[in-house]
Structures are given as structure tokens and as C-alpha cells.
Design a protein that fits this description.
The chain has 200 residues and is α+β, with helices and mostly antiparallel strands. It is built from 9 helices and 4 strands, in the order E-H-E-H-H-E-E-H-H-H-H-H-H. It has 2 domains: 75 residues, Glutaredoxin (3-Layer(aba) Sandwich), CATH 3.40.30; 110 residues, Glutathione S-transferase Yfyf (Class Pi), Chain A, domain 2. Helix content is 56%, strand content 7%. Strand 3 and strand 4 form a beta hairpin. The structure holds glutathione (GSH). The site of glutathione (GSH) has 9 residues, from helix 1.
């Protein structure tokens, strides 16, 4: 099985952390497509998107979209990526949902702010800034119940917040969010989180 990724992709990071945390590194070869323009051919040869992460399974299926890939990894691991307790599972899914929309919002805004100023939409930037702010607040509220659990919710949260540190440092997401900040410092001590953090 092969996971195609690029080093600083926050989406791919979710799959990369999951692979390490559930002990699948020996079963999934990880292939870094950086620099993307030179190495993207394998993505386009196997589907329309040209995005990472992508997972080529042993049966030859080429899976795209983070939520599909991590669902597959969860099944491979025998369900280790979500809690079995129903209430804890519901919480994990809520955290994963908010973290996914936060990541999508941060990603969109980051692309917008890197366009030529004459092509940027201030309305879009303002809308997505608001969405990110509300998402940080929602994660702060959930963080009281994060504990030290590692599941697709907390894996997605750490990946989104790490991306915010890189692309949106001026959001200053830690300000006024002490519970989330303390949790983030703690979870970043785990090898899977430290090894995959974006380099900038
Ligand atoms: N919805 C996709 C988003 C993945 C994505 O946007 N990946 C970025 C890297 S972080 C990418 O490959 N972008 C290339 C492009 O937009 O052409 C997912 O959840 O996997």
C-alpha cells in the first residue's frame, strides 16, 4: 500500500499521523511528492483531482479525500482511530467535523491571501476569518474533554492548528484559548505529531 503526500500538507498530515499512531508504517509505504510540479504525474495518472493525500491500496484502488483515506485506515487498523464508547465516539466525530471545516477554511483563505492583491476578495477573506475564529472557539470548548485521547478528532485538530501556525500566525489562535493551547503543547510531545509538523 502507498500513501502519496507532500511534507507540509495539513490534509496528508492527518493520514500520516494516523498511520504512525495505529502502528501501520510497515504496511503503508509513504511517498513524498515534493516538489509537487515535478512529481504530480502519479496523481493525475490515477484520477481527476491531482491532490494529496492519495492512498493506493494493495488491491489497486486509488483512494482520494482525507476522510475516505482515514476511514480506510481505520478499517485496516481494526477500528483504532475512533473510540468504541458511543459518547466518546460522538465527541471524536464532532471534533473531526469542526477541524475539517477549519482546515478547509484556513486553506481557502491562505490561497486567497497569496493571490495578487488586485485579484483578492476581501469579502471572502472576511467570511473565512470569521469561520476560523468560530472554529477555534468551538475547539476551545471541546478541548476540556480532549484529555489525552488520540483519535481522528484530535489528530485532525492538531493538523488544522499546526497549519494555522504556519499560514495564519496572525490569527493568534492561542490568545484567549488556554485549554486548547495547553492541550496542543501536550499532544505535540507525541512522536507522531512532532515528526509530521510543518516546516517553515
Ligand atoms: N478535500 C481534500 C483536500 C486536499 C488538498 O487540498 N490537498 C492539497 C495539499 S494540502 C493539494 O494537493 N492541492 C493541490 C491542488 O489544489 O492542486 C482532502 O480532504 O483530502
Amino acid at each position: 500500500m502507498k500513501l502519496y503526500y507532500s511534507g507540509n500538507s495539513p490534509y496528508a498530515r492527518r493520514a500520516r499521523i494516523a498511520i504512525i499512531e495505529v502502528g501501520l508504517p510497515d504496511r503503508v509505504e509513504q511517498i513524498d511528492l515534493t516538489p509537487r510540479d515535478e512529481n504530480d504525474a502519479v496523481l493525475f495518472a490515477n484520477g481527476p483531482g491531482g491532490k494529496v493525500p492519495a492512498l493506493e491500496t494493495d488491491s489497486g484502488a486509488f483512494l482520494v479525500e482525507t476522510l475516505i483515506i482515514t476511514r480506510y485506515l481505520d478499517e485496516m487498523s481494526g477500528g483504532k482511530l475512533y473510540p468504541s464508547d458511543p459518547a466518546a465516539r460522538d465527541l471524536a466525530l464532532q471534533i473531526e467535523g469542526v477541524s475539517t471545516l477549519l482546515m478547509d477554511s484556513l486553506f481557502l483563505r491562505s490561497h486567497e491571501t497569496r493571490r495578487d492583491p488586485s485579484e483578492q476578495s476581501p469579502a471572502l477573506i472576511e467570511k473565512e476569518s470569521g469561520r476560523a475564529g468560530r472554529s477555534y472557539d468551538a475547539l476551545e470548548a471541546f478541548a476540556a474533554d480532549f484529555g489525552d485521547a488520540v483519535h481522528m478528532g484530535t489528530i485532525s485538530a492538531v493538523s488544522a492548528l499546526g497549519y494555522a501556525d504556519w499560514r495564519h500566525a496572525s490569527d493568534n489562535w492561542r490568545a484567549g484559548r488556554p485549554v486548547l493551547s495547553a492541550w496542543f503543547e501536550r499532544i505535540m510531545q507525541r512522536p507522531a505529531m512532532a515528526e509530521t509538523k510543518p516546516i517553515f
